[in-house]
């Protein structure tokens, strides 16, 4: 499927992750940076038939107007982008910025959600046609939403569409409305955030009906990545984890959003689910996300694991992870665009469980162990396109 | 092979690891403790036909006379063994202590090394016969030796045996002389230390000739365990490790031994080899082992990993591991005794590469990634006895 | 004042801190342990005339019945007390346990608080008389209470005593009722907890009227100790702290109490007040106290300080403190008993600001910097008894 | 003494510390940055009569030719200087660079050391005269030297000067030759490095004879700063430190120099002296300095302190310090220039012990405790100029 021009449509296109992904793509295309952090550039995936960096065309939705060039400057100041690259990226950033359309904002929208969805769908179709793209992968990298109460309409497509048409209701959170619009435009959908997104039975049904693949959710870039790597070690060695405590300090847009306990809830829930699954039993696991604005784009996570060994011996492991979240997330966004495009070309539909590797809370797969996820990813990718279109 | 009485012969039988292993075996047998930290007690290995805790009979060599009861008291004081267990273990410890024979000490031995080897072999044969054992697995948990210069005799069994007979020479370090004696007694050999032991071409030849399996070397219980778990994460994610610095603080007998830079050398070498293999390229990797007597049996390791992500972003991971080394090592010694006994019963010979899971510097296998080692171990164990004796 | 038999009356006499203090006092008296962690044993205070270990007689109040011998065994198991000391301490612990009376418990008490106060006062007077003590210092080491709303009765002794006599009201929290009873018995009072205790204007008035000294509050034994040591460094060097984040993991009785956010509130408040005072400006300072039962008596605190240097350079300091809280607190309880007894003998009354050294939230003094507190303590102690009774 | 134009002459004027100090001075002067990290800008020193930022004129010696503008760019890339400041600093940097003269290099110098000293002295005198300066403070911020063997000539000025005149000998290390030349030019001398510098009896004599003050040595900016803050806490609380282990990871020019164990020796020695002095007894204190080039200007220090409390309880403190060394050092260099200039104006001579606050290995004072050093500094500074010129 190389040489097939492929769209990458970012929900939250002017956020940190999106801006870093776009800047990086421009740099990769210009040969100004190696693909460090890109999983699809690993030798293990070298043979897989994927869209090349040159094949990707980027657009997106956002609800703010600060342009990508400005955001890139801020990210250079924050240590995410190298200052010396900026001049070479300005034109490319402006070109992408010109493809950013106004997103759906629940606070400003008037009328039925269906109307909003139609507008979003139209944006996607227009983008695909104007650029003559084989397909467009929609990736949600917008602000994390609070968890939403489950409604009967979420389980049944007919009920859902009826509710969407009702101007008095707002039955879907923005992420799910966006997912709905993407599917209706015939686009595969990836949820890089912990928001609800496509993870509703009615939307799953729609994806399967339309033969569209989707993947999610919540990109795994820090503390959870380490947990899915370390927890299997304790298990394999028969060591009994007694408590796993964690504190995350982060600034940036994401820090501000997650400061609100309601927004943090979905993040904390997805993290807790994973840990219990990994250890096979519930352990004491206090977990905090603190907004520390002065840290900017840097995220610092401290974990303290207390475990028991032979004859009850008490031991511990602590780690401190100091990451630039957007630097970790951005290459994965590009990877997901390439892999999901290939899955679509291959005719796959529904949740792509083999992409669990990328997510804190994998859809379509119960595997949380990183090494097994790595193996699953490689095996799946090697099969891609073998019997495909 | 359950119900086959099996010997476990410990070189360094009065050391910390040995005393903890024996105490734990007694506690397991009496139902006083769960098999925490025992890999052979994991559900994944539940079906494997292994000697039971009741089937194991323990003896060993040492060069000190402090009895096991005394050593167990010291280890309780150091937090390795629980005080309340001691009274129930006293009789069992005394029984094992009665099976400890004088080891080979290069400084006190007079005459040809062959004579010493014959005595060690005789001790093993006598032990096997007196207790009517199906087999005896010899496990080296004695003090770490300095690395030895390679000699031509190490490559050729005939040359080696000629040199052993020469009263003027001491061609083998103690660990290798012991391995030689074990093989000559028809016993499988496991090297839990970084010493040379069985890892010489001439001894490999002897093991193969006699149809004996062996495994090693250097039990993986702390910093290296974590490295073999964490390094593959960076690789799988395409993140570039730039430096991996480490400091180990330890007291105890092992701390005192490794304070001597000559003795530490073999430990440091085996650690460096592993890291380079894991990362696929050499990185700056300063590494220290410090003797800090007041820490007693506790080992504290601090590692600082500096890595590079997308567009050159600089990030880091630090961890502090606080382990009780003997508590981590002892259950593995019991696991190895059971697994190597089963391999012997199964007719396997030479290096058991599938046991790489247990070792810093695996013999017979190049795999350093912990998750792959885990998979290899499980696969191998499930085959054990399938076509065996 | 040496050779004056002095009472130490512990509120919460069967808690971890109290049991450790009593065990330690017995060991010190028997010459079985050096006074490690005792500030009054430092050379700087060698000349101060204080009651000796032999002069101290201990009793107290508690609301549980588990005896001190049993509690000491639990603390040995938890690593706070050395196993080998227990046999030598059993008799002494039983003797103290025989001096423990039932404390005031708001949930079980019926009738006016004044009645309860009279009973507590009577217990103290009886103790002083039966043992022929020069004075009795009351030290509160009972469970932390939630903060209480301020009432007009707290500001005026007459109003307060009227309310205490009303059987329908419970105007004082237990710690303050206890402080009231202590003062009414003519006893100096020390609050080692963050509870309200003596820190009410009406009780201050009573202390001054009766010529009684008091000290508090909230023993400084871990994270806060470090903060009062480290924050002045940043200030003295002109470095600008931008955020100071903290997480405390603790088990034990204190962990269980503080798990309740209402109880934790007073602890968190006293910590935040201190940090702002030290840095001279408010900084982002998220702080958590997590109950991690498996840690037992061990407390682990992680702090992350982000600071700015010359030309805006961004730097950080992290620390991990792993303390046995009761081991840190107990010698200070003994120190406070000795020092406050001497202040009483010296005729001092009201808040002893010079004891700020010992507390997170010092009464009678605004100084939070540890080095200045040390100097103040030494200077004050050297003056003690110079013009005294 | 404000309004007295004052010279600051940097030995190693093109190094990281020097470049940062100069850049910062230019930024301060232009009002582009606040004096974060400058001790002389603290309110406690507000009343002291010191040269202002505008009064300082900078020149120096170095043995490399990379100009200051280039070095500043490199430091911006390394995160030490903010990118956006560079354009405003270019002219000022060029002006200072024009005042940099060739330093003394032992490997390239031919002839008697006296000749070299005369040239250095002449450079200083010319600088003072050309700029019409009231005085010039010489600050050594050049590469750390290996420790030198003590010679009889180091103790006696006459012997020393005779040896300096001998073309066959090189009796002084570069730092001491420089100090000699500075004194001969009538300039106060500050040693910010651990090199020998002015710390020889013969040079002390010369300083006193000429009525010149000096200060040193080895700027205290990281691990040692923390040690001098933390160790007194353990002491004041009667807690017994059992071991204090440290590892320093650093890149940059300093990292490369200290990789050589010979050069590191003087650094390690000065650190060890301090720790023993602080704790009052020798403790196990392994210490490492590792060159980790990829860390660039960042220094990461990990310390692990194991200590004993009441009844032998075992506890620990760890910290990780992540500093930009040059950002920490540079403002202190400016502080020292101002303070030593004032001391000179005040007529003080010999070692300025009150400046111990700034140094790992203070000359003229035995005080290592940071809080006491702070107090000494403030007290001394307040007296400055009171009876002076
Ligand atoms: N960076 C990581 O490592 C990582 C990992 C996992 C998940 N995530 C998730 O990725 C998301 C983006 O993170 P970020 O750091 O870029 O955050 P950010 O705050 O910088 O960017 C979010 C962007 O989404 C936009 N947005 C908000 N609501 C929108 C809407 N209704 N429609 C369209 N756009 C909308 C915002 O205007 C903003 O530009 C977050 O949800 C975060 O939780 C990030
Ligand atoms: N504990 C761990 O986690 C771990 C991990 C990997 C390797 N190891 C290795 O295991 C070994 C044992 O560790 P330990 O902590 O028990 O040390 P230890 O010092 O407590 O015990 C070593 C014992 O070996 C005995 N010994 C010395 N020379 C001997 C000889 N020639 N013959 C027979 N006995 C001899 C000593 O007398 C002592 O009793 C060390 O080599 C160590 O490096 C331990
Ligand atoms: N250990 C430290 O380092 C430290 C430091 C600062 C403050 N403190 C405070 O010291 C107190 C004691 O800590 P601990 O670890 O011993 O806790 P703990 O739970 O082990 O002991 C508290 C004791 O108080 C008793 N108690 C509860 N209510 C009472 C009442 N109304 N009257 C009399 N007794 C009562 C309980 O029964 C228990 O025996 C806590 O408030 C804690 O916050 C401890
Ligand atoms: N940065 C800190 O926090 C800190 C703290 C304490 C001490 N120091 C000391 O400060 C010194 C400078 O550190 P840096 O990071 O700037 O190092 P650097 O390597 O960047 O700079 C040293 C400079 O000295 C020059 N030099 C070498 N030999 C010389 C000579 N004979 N005459 C004149 N110049 C010479 C070099 O060419 C170089 O420009 C080092 O000795 C370091 O140990 C620094
Ligand atoms: Na982010
Ligand atoms: Na406690």
TrEMBL record, chains A, B, C, D:
Transmembrane annotation, as ranges: none
GO molecular function: inositol-3-phosphate synthase activity
Domain Myo-inositol-1-phosphate synthase GAPDH-like: 222-326
InterPro entries, A to Z: Myo-inos-1-P_Synthase, Myo-inos-1-P_Synthase_GAPDH, NAD(P)-bd_dom_sf
GO aspect biological process, one term: phospholipid biosynthetic process
Family: Belongs to the myo-inositol 1-phosphate synthase family.
Name of the protein this chain belongs to: Inositol-3-phosphate synthase
Organism: Umezawaea endophytica
Lineage: Bacteria, Bacillati, Actinomycetota, Actinomycetes, Pseudonocardiales
